[in-house]
Amino acid sequence: MPHRPGPSLWRHAAVLPWLLLTGAAAHADEWLYRVAPGDTLIAIGRKYLAEPRGWRDLQRLNQVAAPRRLQTGRTLRVPVAWLRDDATVATVALVEGAVERHRDHAAPAPAQAGMRLHAGDRVVVGADGAALLTFADGSRTLLTPGTRLTITELLVQRGTGAVSTRLDLGGGAVETEVRRDAPRPRFELRAPALNLGVRGTEFRLRFDADSGTAHAEVLAGRVAAAAPGAPAAPTPLDAGFGLVAGRDGVGAPQPLAPPPSLAGVSDLVERLPLRLAWPQAEPAPAWRVQVAPAAAPERLLVDRRVAEPRLRWADLPDGDYRLRVRALDAAGLEGRHADIAFRVKARPEPPLLRDPVHEVRVYDDPVPLRWTAPDGVQRYRLQVAAGHDFAAPVHDVEVAATEATLALPPGRWWWRVRSVRAADDAGPWGDAQTFERRERPAAPSSLAPRIDRDRVQIAWAARAGETVTVQLARDDGFTDLVAERVAAQSGTELPLPGPGTYWVRVRATDDAGVSGPWGPPNRLDVPAAPVWPWLVPAALLILLLL
Asked: Given pLDDT bands bounded at 50, 70 and 90, which one contains residue 182?
């Protein structure tokens, strides 16, 4: 009675429809074995076939007359579906944040880089975690935050080395790259709403357990998409297309949104929290934003869906990173991504500028500048320039203290400070501030006061924008004031006081209310009024009375 393939062979035969979808020809599902000295057909069957007694089928297929005396160097045709599968393992290559391995009858264990995973293991990723799994053929699957993935099958085929991998996605999102150069890879990723059969491709799959909806997107190659248990033929999904599957079945392939433009995104971040923004050329319901180290793009440090074309993130260590952005369409399919490199250099943090404050007028000469002391910083770099771009600083000094005193001529100045940890490790510049260095108003040059009938006339050389305060006192110390007046013009009048000696002085005040020094006091003698002008009226009055 001819031998029939065992159950494991029928299991592999079940994957043939999607293999044919990828364009594999029938002869590609045969393994060619070159006979070595001492080989027998029985020994070959025992070593390589899933059912060792299948050597008789192998004998008939290859028309071998003497199964115990094979010609060395002869090539035997072996159907791949007849080959034995051995269990293999997957490896946790990278872990970021909280990730656990769950195994039946065992407590969850924190996943660690290098941990081996077997069929039946479940990987659970926390809300801010990520994990990268690698398989025996070099294929890789990136698990993003909030993902639950069960490894259902991990097998390697005797002879060909082909790896058969089957994964079940219970929720979350994965990004998978199946190696194209692997020998006959069999990779299947399943979700309750959608099964994907893959052979050498890059694709993404997300499953929302609450809605029962799956989104698949193919970036390279082709996948075969089918509803679980559906009798219909799988739908071929080519690179650049995606589809949505749910309780109503598998939708038609849709083209993916093009990569967004990242023009204008800063390649240097010197302040935290992280703020990155990109132009919105086309309206989009949302964007997927990912950040990973430049040297390890699989280490997802940030994986967020945002409603606006910008990302805000609390903290990232100094280093080199890659930003990846893709737009979502109305169906929730994520488009092709765009990448850009950027660097974070936010430490040591810059000090805060204390004095002079922004937009103040300064009259000190030299000018004192003061700033705060961030933790762990002992040295600072100080720059002062006439322009806000600091293209030509007039002072560029390194100091150990949190203050410096610099001579500056009158004018508008900008200043900034950065922290210095070592000669080759300076932090970013802090926010620049500007101030105006002014000279105090000079004492006005006043003319000698003069008396005009019943008024005292006082004049001085006026300067634009200044007011002048005038004081009249009985003493040159101006402790006994008789009058005080503020005038904006070049002169004023004061009522004539009684006879005696007085002193007059003036000082200027600028438009900021800052006053200069008092000018030198000027003496004013007010004579007594003469008696004779009153004698004539008095005499006439006496004569009239007589």
From this structure: low
Identify the pLDDT of residue 229: 82
Compute the distance between CA of residue 90 and CA of residue 134 in angstroms, rounded to an integer: 6
Q: Which two tokens stand for residue 313?
A: 């993130």
Q: Take residue 179 and report the two structure tokens written for it.
A: 């190696």
63 within 8 A of 12, measured Cβ to Cβ: no
* Distance of alpha carbon 264 from alpha carbon 280, whole angstroms: 11
Q: Are 227 and 245 in contact (CB under 8 A)?
A: yes
The structure tokens 């080759």 sit at 424
Q: Which of 149-158, 216-225, 227-236, 345-354 has the lowest mean pLDDT?
A: 227-236
pLDDT digits (tens, 9 = 90+) for 326-350: 999 999 999 999 999 999 999 999 9
**Which domains are seen in the chain, by residue range?**
7-83 (3.10.350.10), 86-254 (2.60.120.1440), 268-344 (2.60.40.10), 353-437 (2.60.40.10), 450-526 (2.60.40.10)
CB 110 within 8 A of CB 156: no
| pLDDT for 13 beyond 60 | no
Report helix angle 41-48 to 55-62, nearest 10: 120
